[in-house]
Write a structure and sequence with these properties.
The complex is a heterotrimer of chains A (about 240), B (about 475) and C (about 240). Chain A has about 240 residues and is of the alpha/beta class. Chain A has one domain: NagB/RpiA/CoA transferase-like (Rossmann fold, 3-Layer(aba) Sandwich). In chain A, about 30% of the residues lie in helices and about 25% in strands. Among the domains of chain B are: about 230 residues, 3-Layer(aba) Sandwich (Rossmann fold), CATH 3.40.50; about 55 residues, no CATH class. Chain B contains 23 helices and 13 strands. Chain B has a six-stranded parallel β-sheet with strand order 1-10-7-4-2-3, sandwiched between helices. Chain B has a four-stranded mixed β-sheet with strand order 8-5-6-9, with helices on both faces. Chain C has two domains: about 120 residues, Rossmann fold, CATH 3.40.50; about 120 residues, Rossmann fold, CATH 3.40.50. Chain C has 13 helices and eight strands. In chain C, α7 crosses α9. Chain C is of the alpha/beta class. Classes of the chains: A alpha/beta (about 240), B alpha/beta (about 475), C alpha/beta (about 240). At the A-B interface, β1, α1, α6, α7 and β10 of A face α2, α3, α4, β1 and α8 of B. β1 of chain A pairs parallel with β1 of chain B, so a sheet runs across the interface.
Chain lengths: ~240, ~475, ~240
């Protein structure tokens, strides 16, 4: 569907006239910026160094972090969910869960222990949001992970609902170690490359850094306001 | 509420501010804490912070110089993704368009995430006239809204002037809250009450931190996650942006977001930075079905191209507010504007006029603390000075007594002969007011000075006399 | 080295002891001092209040006054910075802009001159006492002289230094601000006085007569025992 544009010409003509020149009609090249300090930050850091930076920063953002091998994943996931008080659990529909050996945990073990697991299913429409709203734990996967700020990057699509990461009371983010980059700079470059290749960006890209918080009352930091109250990162060694 | 807050005159507002002990304590400790956090966040890891500032400045200046181009590109790309774009030259046009969307949707329940632009156009008042329930979902804004629309006093921490006990009282009165004034418990109450509102909302309204021209995206920066719920749950989303708040691509957005969060709250990134492009896609379950982007001028094109253009570089981080020694003592409400502090003192007279706001450019010692911290290098104190020049020379709004004094100054200071006579007779002229080495009750403009401090009596022997006598061979001290 | 002194009107009329100390100090450091009689005010009070036209006349007189000087040195960061602003103020003026630029290029604040031009970090001063130092805004932020006064004070024998809390905060002077916004100015200087007291210093030192007149005037009114000294006076003690 194509949207609509109203009132544009008069508005933009006014701007050009304020700038004392005619409207720009030729395509503009992206400028060669004089300063580019952002590429220097953690330049050349190895994945292991980036992991250390991430772990260190998690201390500041009220986020638990586990670094594990793939074989340990089911046990660690189970431990975290149990610690968070069990289900209901809501997850994206993502084949990586199965690939990472989580089928027996998510489809057998948890249901047998009365931990309800709901997998996002767009055919069910609104039902998905209600499930997310009532869930205790939401589980998502980081596509790009920013070491500097301890940030996971999530792309929404039909199988990956936006609300899985912020309606449940707690949040577990799975981080493939290979997704680690120094900072937001590399994520921006990557997203831009994806856009230039496919002409598309996800309708919602979330850069999430730990649980939600607010300092609006006397500048006292309160963890857990509208989004999750607790968050855990599980870094999977996939390298 | 538009840009103006309160009805009192400047002097009265300042007087109220100065006598509000809680507010002043809160502001001082916020400033001290934030200064430390900001300094740490801008030096930690980032390498050469001055290079970042230079880059921030060049991005913002480039965008302003090519604003029509990038807005055109943005609107094309939003429409390509199925969004509707409305260009509003005035706040009335913006409100009319939003009203028409509200009416078409028969919307009654609206949730909002924090947006200075919507404050500027008095959007809530219009929506309330339409019988809508409008809920501000940023915790600080929500507190103010519950407290009979108490105006914000800071652009990042709007309820900075309120203490926890006051918040508890508001919650008790308006929400039947029965628990303590512990911020955790208060925030939990807000979470529970607002969750219902999010789920029931027909329309979500947001501001815009930065729009990305290349992809037709825009980003929202929060810590609470409220903007995510505002944009994920209601079926219709309206985003209102000031026309200057955009960047060419994701790469520039990233730079400015990094600078914004560090300067605004001392964090490397805030908890939630959300980049949205168009409405939900086919088969998506959450996110809005309909997306409207309202791009607002409201006086900005008059600033563009003129001597105040650089104020449009602002990314609303409030770093200038957090270091301003004047804001520190008078608080946000004294500025009588939704934009307080140095940025407010520059921007408000431009948007709201000199008649209403002629004092603001003088509410500064021109100490330059604001200019020193501004991440996009707006020469704030120079712009304050520029305002004074305009008020005196173009607007003719300076007080007559001051004009006469400055005329006399112009004559006296420019003429060595007059200056010499004036400074020579000063001790005699000041004699009636002098006791010992000081003047405690000065005449004319000195009166205001000597209300709080002593003024030194002029030296009987001026420095120049001493020097001259000394040159003549009289080297006694 | 030949130094032309820009004493500032404040020092000329109210703080002649600062002028004297500056002359004696620079002479002791081997400079020959000249004081052109035709110097007036740098124009800052009127300029900062928005009276640009009125202030330009004073500025032109100052530019002419110092046209032959090799180095112009001033015991005030704020007034020295005003000279640095002249080229911007006369920007586009074919006659006065180049003259203003040449004045700006040879103007130094006193401590800056000692450290950067005379290349001295120890002036051989001796001063017994607990001191703190007020970093004036115009001198540190606008003129960009941050280290020089600290470097020189550090090498004064007998001097015990305590850093002033909140030192980056303005004292509330701000030229006509102090009278136009007297109520706010009072709050600002009060906080500054509290900070000075917290250090327990016997002396407050500064490099700008105007800030010192503000803080000193408030302390005098409140009956505080802290004495106020210009840095030239401290560096001139031996």
């Amino acid at each position: 569907m194509i949207g609509t544009i109203h009132n544009r010409e008069k508005f933009l003509n006014q701007i050009a006239s304020s700038l004392n020149r005619p409207r720009i009609s030729e395509p503009l090249e992206r400028p060669n910026w004089k300063y580019q300090p952002q590429y220097e930050v953690f330049k050349g850091a190895s994945q292991d160094e980036l992991l250390e930076i991430l772990k260190e920063h998690c201390k500041k953002i009220h986020t638990r972090i586990h670094t594990i091998d793939l074989t340990e994943l089911p046990a660690v996931m189970n431990e975290v969910v149990t610690e968070y008080g069990g289900g209901p659990v809501v997850t994206w529909k993502d084949e990586r869960f199965s690939k990472w050996g989580l089928d027996s945990l998510m489809k057998e073990k948890w249901p047998s222990k009365n931990i309800d697991v709901f997998e996002w299913d767009y055919n069910l429409g609104e039902e998905n949001v209600h499930k997310a709203e009532n869930a205790n734990v939401g589980i998502t996967i980081s596509e790009i992970t920013l070491a500097e700020s301890g940030t996971v990057v999530l792309f929404s699509d039909k199988d990956r609902g936006r609300t899985v990461s912020f309606l449940p009371a707690t949040s577990i983010m799975l981080i493939p170690k290979s997704s680690l980059v120094p900072r937001m700079t590399q994520a921006a470059v990557k997203i831009r490359e994806m856009y230039q290749e496919t002409g598309h960006v996800a309708s919602c890209i979330n850069f999430i850094t730990g649980p939600s918080n607010s300092a609006d009352i006397e500048l006292n930091l309160v963890v857990g306001v509208h989004g999750p109250i607790k968050a855990t990162y599980i870094v999977i060694n996939d390298l | 509420m538009a840009i103006k807050i309160g009805t009192e005159q400047f002097k009265e507002r300042v007087d109220n501010g100065i006598h509000d002990d809680f507010m002043r304590g809160a502001v001082a400790s916020a400033q001290d804490g934030m200064s430390m956090k900001r300094r740490a966040a801008t030096t930690e890891d980032l390498g050469n912070w001055e290079e970042w500032r230079n880059h921030g400045e060049e991005i913002r200046q480039h965008v302003l110089e090519h604003l029509d181009y990038y807005l055109e590109q943005l609107s094309e790309n939003v429409a390509k993704r199925g969004g509707h774009v409305f260009f509003a030259q005035t706040k009335e046009e913006a409100n009319d368009y939003i009203r028409s969307v509200v009416q078409k949707k028969s919307a009654k329940n609206i949730v909002k995430s924090k947006s200075m632009m919507t404050e500027e156009i008095s959007l809530n008042a219009m929506l309330e006239e339409e019988d809508c329930e409008v809920i501000e979902t940023d915790l600080g804004e929500y507190i103010l809204q519950l407290d009979e629309h108490d105006p914000p006093s800071h652009i990042v921490a709007p309820a900075l002037h309120k203490n926890r006990e006051q918040v508890r009282e508001v919650f008790e009165k308006k929400l039947g809250y029965t628990k303590s004034s512990n911020p955790e418990e208060l925030a939990y109450q807000a979470r529970v009450t607002l969750r219902e509102k999010f789920l029931a909302a027909d329309i979500g309204i947001t501001g815009c931190n930065f729009a990305v021209a290349e992809t037709g995206s825009f980003c929202l920066v929060t810590n609470e996650g409220n903007a995510d719920l505002v944009t994920a749950l209601p079926k219709t989303q309206i985003t209102v942006m000031g026309m200057e708040r955009l960047v060419p691509t994701f790469e520039e957005m990233e730079v400015l977001v990094s600078m914004l969060t560090r300067n605004a709250v001392g964090q490397k990134l805030t908890s939630y930075i959300t980049v949205l492009t168009g409405p939900r896609e086919e088969l998506d379950v959450d996110g809005p079905e309909e997306f409207h982007l309202v791009i607002v001028d409201n006086g900005r094109s008059k600033i563009l191209g003129g001597e105040f253009q650089s104020v449009l570089q602002c990314i609303r981080c409030a770093a200038c507010i957090n270091v301003c020694p004047v804001y520190r003592h008078i608080g946000g409400h004294s500025y009588g504007s939704i934009y307080p502090g140095p940025i407010g003192a520059v921007l408000t007279p431009l948007l709201g006029g000199y008649d209403e706001y002629k004092e603001l450019p003088y509410a500064s010692t021109l100490c330059g603390a604001c200019t020193e911290v501004c991440p996009v290098k707006i020469p704030l104190h120079n712009l304050l000075h520029k305002h004074r020049e305009v008020i005196v020379e173009k607007e003719g709004k300076a007080p007559v007594s001051e004009k006469l004094l400055m005329k006399a100054y112009g004559l006296g200071a420019a003429s060595p002969a007059l200056y010499k006579i004036g400074s020579k007779i000063a001790p005699a002229a000041m004699n009636p007011f002098t006791s010992g080495d000081k003047i405690s009750k000065g005449p004319g403009p000195l009166k205001a000075w000597t209300e709080a401090r002593e003024f030194p009596a002029p030296n009987k022997e001026r420095f120049r006399d001493w020097f001259k006598n000394r040159e003549k061979g009289d080297k006694k001290l | 080295m030949k130094v032309t002194l820009f004493a500032t009107c404040m020092v000329d009329m109210f703080q002649s002891n600062v002028g004297k100390a500056t002359v004696e100090l620079l002479e002791r450091l081997g400079c020959e001092i000249d004081f052109p009689e035709s110097q007036v005010c740098c124009g800052q009070p009127a300029y900062n209040s928005g009276y640009v036209k009125e202030s330009k006349e004073a500025m032109k007189r100052m530019i002419d006054t110092f046209s032959d000087a090799e180095y112009v040195v001033s015991p005030s960061g704020s007034c020295a910075f005003m000279f640095k602003e002249y080229p911007h103020i006369f920007a586009g003026d074919p006659v006065w802009e180049p003259k203003a630029q040449s004045l700006a290029d040879k103007t130094y604040e006193l401590t800056q001159f000692i450290v950067e031009v005379l290349k001295m970090e120890d002036v051989g001063a001796k001063f017994e006492g607990n001191v703190t130092y007020h970093t004036s805004c115009h001198m540190t932020r606008l003129l960009g002289v941050k280290e020089a006064p600290m470097t020189l004070l550090k090498n004064v024998k007998g001097l015990k230094f305590t850093e002033l809390p909140g030192k980056e905060q303005c004292c509330g002077f701000g030229g006509t601000f102090a009278v136009k916004m007297a109520q706010i100015s009072e709050q600002m200087v009060d906080e500054k006085v509290r900070h000075v007291e917290e250090t327990g210093a016997e002396y407050l030192i500064g490099a700008d007569a105007a800030c010192l007149m503000n803080i000193g005037g408030r302390m005098q009114r409140l009956g505080k025992p802290v004495k106020v000294l210009h840095i030239a006076e401290v560096l001139n003690s031996h």
